[in-house]
Amino acid sequence: MKKIFLVAWVFVSLCMNAQTINSPNGKLKMSFQLTPEGEPVYELLFGGKYVIKKSKLGIELKNHPSFIKGFSVVKIDSSSKDETWEPIWGEVKQIRNNYKELAVTLSNENRNIIIRFRLFDDGLGFRYEFPRQEQLSYFIVSNEVTEFNLTGDHKTFWIPGDFDSNEYFYINCKLSEIDAGIGKEVNEISTRSLPGPTIVQTPLMMKTEEGLYINIHEAALVDYPAMNIVINQSAFSLSTVLVPDAIGNKAYLQTPCKTPWRTIIISDKAVDILASKTILNLNEPSKIENTDWIKPTKYVGIWWPMHVGTATWNYADVGNIKLDQTDWNSLKPNGKHGATTENTKRYIDFAAENGFDGVLVEGWNVGWEDWSGNWKEEVFDFVTPYPDYDVKVLEEYAKSKGVKIIMHHETSASVTNYERRMDEAYRFMKANGYDAVKTGYVGWIIPRGEHHDGQWMVNHYVRVAKTTAQYKIMLDAHEPVRPTGLHRTYPNWLACEAARGNEFNAWSRGNPPEHETILPFTRLMGGPMDYTPGIFQVKLNYYDPNKTECVHTTLVKQLALYVTMYSPLQMAADLPENYERFPDAFQFIKDVAVDWDDTKIISAEPGDYITIARKAKGKDEWYLGAITDENSRDEKVSLNFLDKGKWYVATIYADGKDAHWDRNPMVYEIKSYLVNGNTVLWLSLADGGGAAVGFKPASEKDFESLKKY
Amino acid sequence: MKKIFLVAWVFVSLCMNAQTINSPNGKLKMSFQLTPEGEPVYELLFGGKYVIKKSKLGIELKNHPSFIKGFSVVKIDSSSKDETWEPIWGEVKQIRNNYKELAVTLSNENRNIIIRFRLFDDGLGFRYEFPRQEQLSYFIVSNEVTEFNLTGDHKTFWIPGDFDSNEYFYINCKLSEIDAGIGKEVNEISTRSLPGPTIVQTPLMMKTEEGLYINIHEAALVDYPAMNIVINQSAFSLSTVLVPDAIGNKAYLQTPCKTPWRTIIISDKAVDILASKTILNLNEPSKIENTDWIKPTKYVGIWWPMHVGTATWNYADVGNIKLDQTDWNSLKPNGKHGATTENTKRYIDFAAENGFDGVLVEGWNVGWEDWSGNWKEEVFDFVTPYPDYDVKVLEEYAKSKGVKIIMHHETSASVTNYERRMDEAYRFMKANGYDAVKTGYVGWIIPRGEHHDGQWMVNHYVRVAKTTAQYKIMLDAHEPVRPTGLHRTYPNWLACEAARGNEFNAWSRGNPPEHETILPFTRLMGGPMDYTPGIFQVKLNYYDPNKTECVHTTLVKQLALYVTMYSPLQMAADLPENYERFPDAFQFIKDVAVDWDDTKIISAEPGDYITIARKAKGKDEWYLGAITDENSRDEKVSLNFLDKGKWYVATIYADGKDAHWDRNPMVYEIKSYLVNGNTVLWLSLADGGGAAVGFKPASEKDFESLKKY
Questions:
Q1: Which of A320, A424, A448 is facing B245, going by the closest CB pair?
Q2: Is the pTM of this model over 0.90?
């Protein structure tokens, strides 16, 4: 056996020239080879032109002989796949998974590695695999050498590399102009670990001078640290920076094992980037067998009042609290506590009246008096309510109204504490009628020295997804590592924050008007975001004349976000009383779906605009959102996605006259028309504005009352 | 109020000269003062002579203005206490707690600290307290400056300072001769973190040229790192080195809080050091209300066979196992697995026949195939038995025999994994009839970068003690931080290893013959040790002719250790078949008690010899152990501790003719005599030998059959 193996090995080794594969439609082409020094390298071409020039591949092992050069080829496997699968929930009903695969087994001193490439029509994924083998069982990754050598000084949408936060606004400049040192000035983010001025995060969105769109990210990030990217600003070469652990190691692995996929999505059309399912396709199918209990959710919550300052998470205005030594009943309430039984009932009523599935309640549990900034381990217990929050009464009340209360587990990044208490906390949830949890990781991680995006925390987030699944609990993680498509594998993990959400508009310089036109090209490439749209009262001096912050969109753009910012978990984030002031505009939020049978990316340009139409799950209803950056825009939308030969009522929510994100953000107009698949809508988006349209089949009565568009 | 406070402050500040207190019997005297720079200092005298010369006190705070000088005195409180309390179990029935106290409140920029001194007749304890205060809530300890400035180049019994291990043999030399760099050569300890060549661990035992014995340690180590000691080898000044966390900080504290006590035990008689209860007195009373379920325990176990190589912990001889991906039933058994159902039944039978309370079973649970040395997080689950170990059958069998199986939780130092699984593991124990657990922490700690003796792990050990107490589980921790008397507060925490146990004799250079004469003066000052004595087959080539290791004592010395090495948890560590070969000697192990009403330290000199007699709990029986180092010794023991005017049968287990720890260790003689309180026994201890004596009230029949001594 050994002899035969050796013969095969020599044969393959001698005949190893560049191995080339083409994507199913031939548009993309990649090749792999070993350099004379035995270093693995790859190239990638789109339409015959280089996208990635010859770039190194490899993983460095700690306390091992070199594992990045001196390789021989042992085996080359090529294959292809073309299948269609149905997500548990998503933007479309069916997803096609169509790729050509090349798997190269390399050997160095009897240690083997497989580099597996999957080439799709819209991109490439590759990963490193370490099969079970004699010479390599346990090892430490000291570095990953993966390169992405680009062909020019591309326009880039980036945020600073950071091991602990992804809550930055995006900057748009050439690769050569990037200065990630700006992260030091973003003081509204409390927990920042900036590895260097030329290091940025993924998903990294670029556009070449020739108009090619390139997105670099990763898929299926499990048991490995997140990837940052360091840029050589003269050679336009990108390479990998893995998030280190407390002592500087990158990953602890045991064979058989594999890294996440490195992904490069490419198209000459921006809309194709948003439509790409390559990252999802590179993730494993659902590991949850029975998924009946997983339900896309629209919710309201006790949350925005804390951000605008009309309520507090904490019950008392005191500092220095010890969880196990405090008599909560003896504290003097501050009178502004948001999560009271009475207030929660009001939200439950509002949710029930307006068809929302859930009510998020933050600040219900003891510990908020000094939860932040103290690197405190025993910060929350996740089971003890404040004296003014009656868990049992509210369970009954919510049940009677057909509404679910959504649990909140802020960990303050004290993850050892959360892991010790998780099981008890989930049992508490199930005993009290909760079936969804929003987690939070604000602050410096405990175990101290670990980072939000390191291997240990990556494993934690996945552990939470698995454990909540065991309890049939849906999950929404705030401040975790950026998503990489794992919601396919753990569909109870509905959404993450993992970016600069709407909340930053409430108390910081906020999100610039272009922010929401970039997020789908960057953060959302990895998965749904709980952005918390729907702020109607965008001018926040409404609450306090001295408050200068505001939401940097028009009211209508907030509506459009329910469509452009895909998530199966959508909050109507504003106060009920604000929705009651604008009931006609609120109707769109009440109507819009959170799960879809189909999605059409109609037009898009990162940093400028996005228009998307989506068909509601199991219904003949479509919803359309169009947003623009700080510049106004006229958007011509052909409704050819509608059922041919059928009439619909299109209810158009448009920016009002002279609307402007800063000067006049809250004016809007709502009009309804009869439309069909031949109709072309002309939407007029104000500076920093948007448009939202709902389409429902027209009834006979509609023909009497409405005009054709 | 503020004004009055200020007046008082100035008054005290101005009149602050040295504050002096004397111990209850006046033998010890200490004084405290501030230097002109406002640095707190103390001195300690014994019989009018300096033991500790002027030495600094203080704690440095990270990111704070100086907190070690510039102090003013705010308040001075003095008080005294004289009380007697009863331990749940122990060496004596009642303990007297008698001290004079001085508590000095100091202030620096409105930040307060209290230094509290308690002066006993045999030593001093002091600690730092941070009251609740406006200017100091959360803080990080960067350093502790506590000094112990000695008066000369004392003879010292020490082991190298190490943040991860205390499993060293002791070295005995002058302070100026200490070279802790020797720790690098102790390769039989796998996990070593040596902070420097002049850094040693506590308890640190010293003897002055004048014959004064000084022991430096700490009491009540909770929520703080362990203390190492750095030695200035010319000035004979000792100062504190706290074990750092993963990023170099020492402790994260929240007011109100306090450090452990720093303890200095002093006497001109070595026996007083061993009899001291000062460390216990400085610990808090039991926090466990109902302690009925806590029972001192004598046990056997499936353990020594793995150390001598006749059995294995692991079931199969394979490496690279993944806990959640292994079909244990499909593995090929290696045929040497110790923890089988059958073997466990044999141990249960043996325990039942010979009156043991428990049977420890190690290697019962899956994961041992690659448990060590891989820094593997998911290493054990603590609930899945190997295919050849039937938990339910053994629960029934043990119950039918009136014996308890002792659970084993080796964590491989993967503490995050253990903390996640602890509750489930304890529930599993209670569901299957276990009420005691031996834990283990072999290897590098996870969270990676943390140390065995750092604050995070100190909190872990206490958390385990508290949590097991909630489940009514008794605890024996191996490889934890060295004890500091916390068994008073958590009496379910029966014992720790935390030093070089008998096991090192099985597979390393072993423990030198003096080892057990030093341990009571060092490691055992903090609490009981699960040393696992009772090895009868001390020559280990018995198992394998090529095996050169052996136990470095005579057989009889192994008996004597049950008395000299105090623990409420005592193993008879050898194989049942070896006890069956020497049933007469085994009788002592069967007879000897594990809980005591009284203890007499008859003679002792660290590194040379120890003789102790103890009265069994609730019985008129005494047991005496005498041990010596590598030198033979004649020990004259007055039996004046026996009930006056009453006759006892003394069964004397003595080293046999020409016995010698190395050349002829297993010869012994057993003789019984009638004795009373006026008898003086002459015990002859061989080189590396010992003597053990049991005393029971004489019956009429004994007067017929036995001679008077």
A1: A448
A2: yes
